[in-house]
Amino acid sequence: MKLDMENPEKDNAELISKLRVSHQPISNKWDFLRDFSLWEAPDDVDFTSKSSDRVLWMTGDSTCKTVLLHSIVHQLFDSTSKSGSEPRKTIAYLFSDSEPKSGQGSPASVVRSLIWQVLQSQPSLSKHFQSMLSSTERDGFHDANDFYALSILLYTLLQDDQLNTTYFVLDGLEELCGEVLSNAQDPYRDDWGLKDMVRLIYQSSCLSDRVRWFVSGTKHLTRQIDIELHHDAKITRVTEISHDHTSDGSHAVSDTAAKYPKTPDPEMRETVIKQDVTFRSASDPRSSQIHITSSSCPSAVRCAVNYYTSLKVRELASRSYYGGDLQSLVTQQLQTCSGGNWLWVDLACDIIESKGVPWNAPGIIGKLEPDVAGLYGQIQSELRTLGTENENFCNKVLSTAAIAFRPLSIAEFSNLVHFPAEVDLKIIIERMCFSFLEIQEEKVCFKHPAARQHLRTNIGKGDGLSLAHAEMVMECFRAVLDDLQRDKNKEKPWLGNYAMIYWIRHLSAFNISQVPELMQSIMESINKLLKDHFIWWLEALTSQGLLAQALRDLRILETTWVEKTKQELRLAYYSNGSNNAALFENIRGAILFLEYHYDLNLPDGTSPRSTLVFCPDVDELKHILPLKRRALGLTLMPVIRTSRLRLGSSSRILKGYSGHIGDCAYSPDGRLMAAISISNNASEKTSLRLWDSKTLKVQHVLPTPIFEYGAWHVAFSPGRCGVLAMASSSDVQLVDVSTGTPTRTLEPITSIYADNKIIHIKFSLDGDYLIAVQSKSVIRWQLPSYQESVWVDLRATGFYTDGACISSDDRLLALAGHDKLTRHLVIWDIKESKVRHKLKGHEGGVEIRFSSDSGLLVSCSADCGVRIWDPETGEEISKLDVGGARIYDVALSPDGMNLACATIEDVRVWGAIVPTQGVKRYDYEHVFQGDPGNVHKIWFSFDGRHILSSSRDGTLRIWPVERFEPSGTAAKDDSASGQTQSPADSNDAPQAIPKYHDQPVSFVAFSPEGTMVASGSDDGDILLWNANEGTALRSLGDGHTRGILSLVFSRDGNTLISASSDYTIGIWHVHSGKLLCKLEGHSDWVRDVKFSPDGHFIASASDDNTVKIWDITESLNNKAIAEKDGSTNTEPMIQTRCTTLSKHADYVYCVAFSPNGQYLASGGDEPRILIWDLQAMRHGDRGEDSGQSKQQQRHNGGQLCLELSRPDTLSNVRCLAFAPPYGDTLVAVSKSGVICIWKAIAEPQTTGTQNWQFTYTVDGDRAWPGRPFRFPQFDAEQPDVLLSENGALLVRNSSSWVDASSSMILGLGTHYRVLDDNGKTWITKNEEKLLFVPPQYDRDDVHTFHVKGDRVVIGCLSGAVLIFRFGDEE
């Protein structure tokens, strides 16, 4: 974002809006609290700006907490407006009865809202938000898993010297964090939960003395506070104050209660406050916890609720037309019965008003239940008076709202309950269910969280909750399928966001055994959606930005529902038939497809149809493959290969480092991933980046200025109160993980030893020590004092260490290095302080790793070996064969079931063969390709499901380990083999036809009819393809030894000519694949070749600055003889005879024959074009010099040429074309896309040499942005129109030439193009983006794609050749 220095307020507002917060202002129904002083903190709990008390926890089951906090907010706002000379205050608040209505609660949404309110109050602090967006290269932090990034930002704001005294008020922390909507076993809960929010409150209160917290919650919060209290040794209990009821109903007050004399009144101190714990520390700020029960209420709060009651009754009386004594009586009765509970008052007034008989109000009050839960039950029972049908409508609405995982819009709600058209949902909500629900901003919300809790409690009895979720699943499927059908029918659909995505979560929320009668229908619906409507469903999710959430939810469904209930579902298979047996396959296939979608690194919002096109034909996706024929109107799909057992693409590519990655580590809970860079020079910035391991989004970037060339090692301490250590070769920098800030720098005392570099760091298993392994010693710092000591001294051994690893149990130290004689491994017994084993076998530099159970030691080296050792015995268990590849790194998965190594070409993975005791061998190899020669470090993810590989270009790649399971033994790469063919006209043995090139594709071309494609690669191979089926037909032998630069079919399609950087030209018999003739004579690369119109001559252009004309009549006779004899064993001719045209002064890139064969045009890296008069040359004619400066006629050695030049516009000519029928128009296209057009002056029928007049220029880059103008050609039926893959250009009309200013770009029907959009390749239809070509299929230049009508061919750097044919989209 570029800042406007003249209008910083506008910039700040735009920046703050990126937080996307819809904050609910405090309800005006509490305005009356401004007149009440409900809370005065006890003496020992002082929240003035000068005190050290910073956190007040208010727990219990009473609604008094909400009233108290509303009062606090009002008083803080009032004091701010009246403050005068006092320091300014910032008040940021969230109340559970308002905030969740705008969406599902989460800790991230809580922190985001607090940040938004702070920045609204102090816009100048927005600079920290801007800095964080810039460093992380993100445009916002909107994901629920962005809690860590948001917490770092909040910590930064709170430490700013300009921060006002800031009060944070959070009411109902569990609801705000989404804890009430789920439970501890809910697999869909966010990774960051209540415990993290509690910890953030503690941490932030320690950072600044200008921060105060008021937080309320229930028993869940009490339990979490206690957990945090015991978990953090720095916070201790100092007192326990309890006010318990005695047997006679009075209150026993402990001796320490005398410390709290200043409460609003004695009753409050005696009956309300149960001060469970107060947290104190000599160095940390105080936290106080106050427990408020529903059995008693402070008099000040009761007084306020009584006043609130009078206001409610006054409103009720005004609507029901009663007052006077009746109003006073009703007010008095409600005040007496409420017990100071404002929610009870609200519900009681709802019941009274619903009766519609004002004079019966006193009698009604007398029959009301005394607590809120009872009142809700009473209200629900009253629904029976509405009639059976209306009662059912109401119960359906209440049940749907209660089990929904977020507030539903009116449209979503209508789609789910599916009432008859005449039933008005709003009337049901506002007139029948108004005590439970209300409509705000077109969303159906609960008036209070207690209403939802009551309904869920009632529904949860017996099998009710399972049944409700199962029925919701059915309603979701019905709504989704209806919407998708309308979409496919081109009707205007309403796509219900909720039903589209949340059916997955509801599916996980019920017990299958409790709803057996619905399982058949549910499984049929799942199979129907994931098979018949799969792509349309994904399209709907994409349009709503829900695709990533769908993948996350499906993964959770697979692991928590499918796997855990596999036995029950298997029983359902046998009882319900074979149709349900596809359930597991369909769910797994959907996950694999979505994973592959993200593997392709498509631009955000790209249609999954693009993924479908590039989806490999594997068994795991067999239920999706039939949809490929319907995708994007393609009638021919490209054939997609896979690597040996897995897809060859990486799942994600993480960028941001200037140098390569030094090390990577996961936090103990697996939620964060840290990677540290190594810069290539001191001028480049190096940094530590912390990523969320699930979303792979950057959360925090920490510069490392103390490390001149970056850091090599990084490690997390165990436990939640984490420290991260990163080390260069000489220093260790410590970072507080919670706040993301550096804390201290350690320099080992042994750094004074010569060449004693740090080569490994690790925290001990119990977290008591930080260990640094150096070349000649091992240092240990005791935590938290960081007292340093030498743990192991290796100087006396004469062993120099360059690699090290410590076992997870801290017993063994493995060292790789050398002494004066040999290189070997040493296993050092730390406790005994001696060498246990010396291991020999490697010759080069060694990388070593212990397994997580310390039972194995794995080593690899540049000597092409991976060895597995038993560290207890020193025995070499096995050696893995890597086929001679050089190995850079090795890694073991956390469970030891997979082993991976990084070679110079790929990443290889082995699976464990598990014997009866321990893992001893690894077998069946998987290979991930895609980063050859670039991988130098690898790690397994925290859960072992992915492999991280770092590259020298500063990227991290994430490879999926669990992808497609092998069937039996390891399969072979299908790219290395293909179908065999024994041509009818061949006596040779059947020839294997490769499915792809081994090297990047350098050129592709269509045959004249468009039924065949020829492709050439950098290694000189040529393949012929069936353009109707997309399959390889044959390979054209070994005609060239270097790259193919041009391919051209003859007019009849029977002959192919090829030009190569090996200086030769090949003439091929297409149907047999035989090389007929090889033309030799050029001394440099041959750039272009063309057939003459009669097919008897070939013209070639070369980097040797010449054009050569070859008479191939004899070669064609050779082909005719071969066809007549039925044999293709004839050895190719070698032809050197040719006519050399040598008037160019630089590389020649292109040639073109005129339609009548009289002229040949040639051009290259010069600002001119030469036109050669071939007829004059053949007849030995001589012309006269015209004396023209820009256009000259020359005679040299029988060569007659004409020079056309436009120094101002024409340079680096790459394409030439003559217009039919006489060649009186010539078009030249430059490398920069400029199109120049000339017209012949004299009558073209004459035999004399013609002069040419320049007509006009067209800027092709402006006309077709991102589309290189190439393969220009004129059609005999439309000689006025120049055709190319980018469109059609009108070059003349019937009366006169068209000037450049009036030139037209024509669109002739449906046309397909290849577009380069900022490095991204698209296939377009009528200029609209249709199909994205993934980066895995990147091409080299403009010669590696070709469009012919409705067919597109793309040659890729990977060696793949993709052939598409488009028709009408279904």
Would you kindly provide a written description of the structure presented here, covering whatever features stand out?
The protein has 1370 residues and is an alpha+beta fold. The protein is built from 29 helices and 75 strands. The radius of gyration is 39 Å and the shape is globular. Mean pLDDT is 77; it is low at 1-5, 41-46, 232-285, 571-579, 643-650, 963-991, 1181-1198 and 1293-1307.
Question: What fraction of the residues are assigned to beta strands by DSSP?
Answer: 25-35%
**Number of separate helices:** 29
Helix content: 25-40%
Number of strands: 75
**Which whole number gives the mean pLDDT?**
77
For the record, give the distance between the C-alpha atoms at the N and C termini, rounded to a whole number.
42 Å
Low-confidence stretches: 1-5, 41-46, 232-285, 571-579, 643-650, 963-991, 1181-1198, 1293-1307
**Class based on secondary structure composition and strand pairing:** alpha+beta
Largest sheet descriptor: 7 strands, mixed
Radius of gyration: 39 Å
Overall outline: globular
Query: Largest beta sheet: what is the strand line-up?
Result: 2-3-4-1-9-8-5
SSE order and pairing:
Layout: H1 8-17, E1 53-59, H2 64-81, E2 89-95, H3 107-121, H4 126-136, H5 147-158, E3 165-171, H6 173-176, H7 194-207, E4 211-217, H8 219-231, E5 236-239, E6 243-245, E7 251-253, H9 266-271, E8 278-280, E9 286-291, H10 299-320, H11 324-338, H12 342-355, H13 361-366, H14 372-381, H15 388-403, E10 408-409, H16 410-417, H17 425-432, E11 437-440, E12 443-446, H18 449-459, H19 464-488, H20 497-507, H21 516-532, H22 534-543, H23 547-562, H24 566-576, H25 583-599, H26 608-613, E13 634-636, E14 652-654, E15 660-666, E16 672-678, E17 687-692, E18 698-703, E19 713-716, E20 723-727, E21 732-736, E22 741-746, E23 758-763, E24 769-774, E25 777-782, E26 787-793, E27 800-806, E28 812-818, E29 823-829, E30 834-839, E31 846-850, E32 857-861, E33 865-870, E34 875-881, E35 887-892, E36 898-903, E37 907-913, E38 921-928, E39 935-940, E40 946-951, E41 956-960, E42 980-981, E43 991-992, E44 1001-1006, E45 1012-1017, E46 1022-1026, E47 1031-1035, E48 1044-1049, E49 1055-1060, E50 1064-1069, E51 1074-1080, E52 1086-1091, E53 1097-1102, E54 1107-1111, ...
Parallel strand pairs: 1-4, 1-9, 2-3, 3-4, 51-55
Antiparallel strand pairs: 5-8, 6-7, 8-9, 10-12, 11-12, 13-75, 14-41, 15-16, 16-17, 17-18, 19-20, 20-21, 21-22, 23-24, 24-25, 25-26, 27-28, 28-29, 29-30, 31-32, 32-33, 33-34, 35-36, 36-37, 37-38, 39-40, 40-41, 42-43, 44-45, 45-46, 46-47, 48-49, 49-50, 50-51, 52-53, 53-54, 54-56, 57-58, 58-59, 59-61, ...
Helix pairs in contact: 3-5, 5-7, 7-8, 10-11, 10-12, 12-14, 15-18, 19-20, 19-21, 20-23, 21-25, 23-25
